[in-house]
Amino acid sequence: MASVASPVIFKEFCPLYYLLNAIPTKIQKGFRSIVVYLTALDTNGDYIAVGSSIGMLYLYCRHLNQMKKYNFEGRCESITFVKLLSCFDDLVAVGTASGRVAVFQLVSSLPGRNKQLRRFDVAGIHKSSITALAWSPNGMKLFSGDDKGKIVYSALDLDQGICNSSLVLEEPSSIVQLDYNQKVLLVSTLQRTLLFYTEEKSVNQVGTQSRK
């Protein structure tokens, strides 16, 4: 007997007006009207994170249908990369055009979860635009890359509120992608792709030819 094919479901893709309408298109700064551009995006089952050109992170909770806003203290600068993580706590890492990196530990209504918004800063290492961020699955490690080829490892202790960062790798061209799993960091730059073994601190290039 021939198997019955599963029904085909047609889906229509349309703009997320409920999300876009919650983000201003312009802000007023003194006598100037500044256009707000959306510059970075990440999603998971719980949140949609949107970075902007005014340094504001818009975080939409998909379960509560609520929009929250987070920003960096000090000067207003464009957010260039955002990366969400859902583990025991909900985390979002944010990178900016000047090389600032911050981690927000979000508030949760679930029992035993974080009840106070906390922020951790990766300070003083990156000096140029953040182009990639990657979490370890448990949220204890964050890797950040910039357009000058620097890769920084940040060890987070959420219970103690501590973030220790160090430079682990420096490439001659911009970092375009990072991914981490099982003590191995996948790094893609404008010139090559490599595997960085974090325990041995060794590098294994993927392929032999550099990108043109």
Automatic annotation (TrEMBL):
InterPro entries: WD40/YVTN_repeat-like_dom_sf, WD40_repeat_dom_sf, WD40_rpt. GO terms for biological process: protein exit from endoplasmic reticulum. This is TCPR2 protein. The lineage of its organism: Eukaryota, Metazoa, Chordata, Craniata, Vertebrata. Pfam families: WD40. GO terms for cellular component: cytoplasm. It comes from Sterrhoptilus dennistouni.
